[in-house]
C-alpha cells in the first residue's frame, strides 16, 4: 500500500492502517475553523448560532458552544431532539418550516427540555403554531423567514415581510422575536460579486427589521447565515446573529471563494484503489452511497483528490468511483490510498454512521453522527 499525495497535505499519516472507505476529521483543522469563526463573530459583535446540519454530531456541537456559540440552528425537529438530548444544547432555532400536528407535538415536548425558536414564512404555518400553542398553553418564539434573493422559502424582503410580520405579531401565543434569511444565493454568482450581493442582503434585512420595529414590535434578532458570505453579511450594522454551518469542515465547493484551501478542509474521505482496469483508469472503493452525488462547485468531478489536481473522479456508481488518470500519473496502483475532499460535505456526513477523529496523523477517536438521517 502506498499513499499517493504529499504527506504534508494529508491528515492521516501514511503508516496508519485504516479500513476504507471512511470519513476522517482532523481535530486540529476542525478546532481552528470553529475558533476562527467564533472570534470573527465576537469581533463584529454578532451572536454565533451555527447550523449543525453539516456535522450532525453532538461532540462538534459542544465544541461550538464551548467556543462561544449562543445556541445552534437545526432544520428538522429530529436533529434538534438529538442535539438537546445528546449534546445538552439548551437553545435551538429550527430554521425550517415546521408543519403538521406530529411535528408540533414533538416541538411542544422539546420545549419542555430546551428553549426553541421556530422559523415561519407563511400565515398558515404561523396560524397552525398559534392554535397548537394556545391548546398546549405555551408561548412560542418565532422568527420570520425572509427571502433576500435565494428564492427558496421565505417571504420577500421589504414590504411583504413587514406586512406578514405585523399579522404574525397579532397571533395569540406566538412571540415574533426576529427575522432570518439564508443568503446562499451570494455564492451562486461569480465570486467577485459575492460581497455586493451579501451586503445588499444584509442591508435589506436591517431595513426590513427597522420597518417592522416602527410598528412597536421589539424584534431583537436579525439573523443571516451562510458560510461563503460569513465574513461579509454579518458586518452590516444591525445584523445581530450569524448561522454558518459548512465552515466547520469546508469542502471542494468552498475552494470557489478563493480564500479556502486544502489546509482548511477538516473532513476527508479516505478511499482505496480497488481496481486498475486500464492504464488511464482506476476505481476507488467509494461511490454515491458514501461520497454523495452533489455536483462540483469548484474542482471538476466528484471531489478533489488531495495532492492530485490532475486526477479526476469522473463517474460514481453506488460503490465505485471511477478516476481518469492522465499519462505519467505515478501510483494509483491497487491497494494505494487517497484522501478526497467531497464536493459538498453535508450530504456526505449524512451518509456516515461515524466520523473518525485524527490527531497528529493517528485516528484517536470515533464520534457517532448521531443526527444522521434525522430528516423528520
Ligand atoms: C437556513 C439556513 N441557515 C444557515 C445555513 C448555513 O449555510 P452554509 O451551509 O453555507 O454554512 C443553511 C444552509 O443550508 C440554511 O439552510
Report on this structure:
Helix 3 (77-87) runs parallel beside helix 4. This protein has two domains: 7-26 and 257-368, D-serine dehydratase-like domain (Lyase, Ornithine Decarboxylase, Chain A, domain 1); 27-249, Alpha-Beta Barrel (TIM Barrel), CATH 3.20.20. The model has no long low-confidence stretch (mean pLDDT 96). The protein has eight helices and 18 strands. The protein has helices at 27-44, 58-66, 77-87, 101-111, 123-135, 159-169, 194-213, 345-350; strands at residues 22-26, 47-48, 72-74, 91-94, 115-120, 140-147, 155-156, 174-180, 221-224, 241-242, 267-278, 281-284, 304-305, 312-316, 321-324, 337-341, 354-359, 362-368. It is 26% helix and 23% strand. The strands form two sheets. Strands 1, 11, 12, 13, 14, 15, 16, 17 and 18 form a nine-stranded mixed beta sheet that branches. Strands 2, 3, 4, 5, 6, 7, 8, 9 and 10 form a nine-stranded parallel beta sheet that branches. The chain has 376 residues and is α/β, with parallel strands linked by helices. Residues 51, 73, 95, 182, 184, 225-228, 243-247 line the site of pyridoxal-5'-phosphate (PLP).
Amino acid at each position: 500500500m502506498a499513499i499517493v499525495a504529499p504527506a504534508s497535505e494529508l491528515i492521516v499519516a501514511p503508516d496508519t492502517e485504516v479500513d476504507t472507505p471512511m470519513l476522517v476529521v482532523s481535530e486540529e483543522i476542525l478546532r481552528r475553523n470553529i475558533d476562527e469563526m467564533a472570534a470573527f463573530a465576537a469581533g463584529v459583535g454578532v451572536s454565533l448560532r451555527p447550523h449543525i446540519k453539516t456535522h450532525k454530531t453532538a461532540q462538534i456541537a459542544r465544541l461550538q458552544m464551548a467556543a462561544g456559540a449562543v445556541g445552534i440552528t437545526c432544520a428538522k425537529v429530529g436533529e434538534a431532539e438529538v442535539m438537546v438530548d445528546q449534546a445538552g444544547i439548551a437553545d435551538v432555532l429550527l430554521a425550517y418550516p415546521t408543519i403538521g400536528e406530529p411535528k408540533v407535538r414533538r416541538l411542544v415536548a422539546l420545549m419542555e427540555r430546551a428553549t426553541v425558536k421556530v422559523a415561519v414564512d407563511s400565515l398558515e404555518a404561523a396560524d397552525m403554531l398559534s392554535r397548537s400553542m394556545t391548546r398546549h398553553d405555551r408561548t412560542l418564539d418565532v422568527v420570520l423567514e425572509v427571502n433576500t434573493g435565494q428564492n427558496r422559502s421565505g417571504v420577500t424582503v421589504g414590504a411583504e415581510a413587514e406586512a406578514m410580520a405585523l399579522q404574525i405579531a397579532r397571533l395569540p401565543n406566538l412571540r415574533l422575536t426576529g427575522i432570518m434569511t439564508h443568503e446562499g444565493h451570494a455564492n451562486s454568482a461569480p465570486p467577485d460579486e459575492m460581497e455586493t450581493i451579501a451586503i445588499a442582503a444584509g442591508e435589506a434585512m436591517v431595513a426590513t427589521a427597522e420597518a417592522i420595529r416602527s410598528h412597536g414590535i421589539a424584534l431583537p434578532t436579525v439573523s443571516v447565515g451562510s458560510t461563503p458570505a460569513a465574513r461579509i453579511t454579518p458586518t452590516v450594522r444591525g445584523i445581530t446573529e450569524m448561522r454558518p454551518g459548512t465552515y466547520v469542515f469546508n469542502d471542494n465547493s468552498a475552494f470557489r471563494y478563493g480564500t479556502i484551501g486544502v489546509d482548511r478542509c477538516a473532513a476527508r474521505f479516505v478511499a482505496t484503489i480497488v481496481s486498475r482496469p486500464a492504464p488511464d483508469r482506476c476505481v476507488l472503493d467509494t461511490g454515491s452511497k458514501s461520497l454523495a452525488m452533489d455536483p462540483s462547485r469548484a474542482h471538476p468531478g466528484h471531489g478533489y483528490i488531495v495532492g492530485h489536481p490532475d486526477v479526476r473522479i469522473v463517474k460514481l456508481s453506488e460503490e465505485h468511483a471511477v478516476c481518469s488518470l492522465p499519462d505519467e500519473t505515478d501510483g494509483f496502483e491497487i491497494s494505494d490510498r487517497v484522501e478526497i475532499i467531497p464536493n459538498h460535505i453535508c450530504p456526505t456526513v449524512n451518509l456516515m454512521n461515524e466520523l473518525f477523529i485524527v490527531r497528529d496523523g493517528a485516528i484517536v477517536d470515533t464520534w457517532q453522527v448521531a443526527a444522521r438521517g434525522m430528516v423528520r
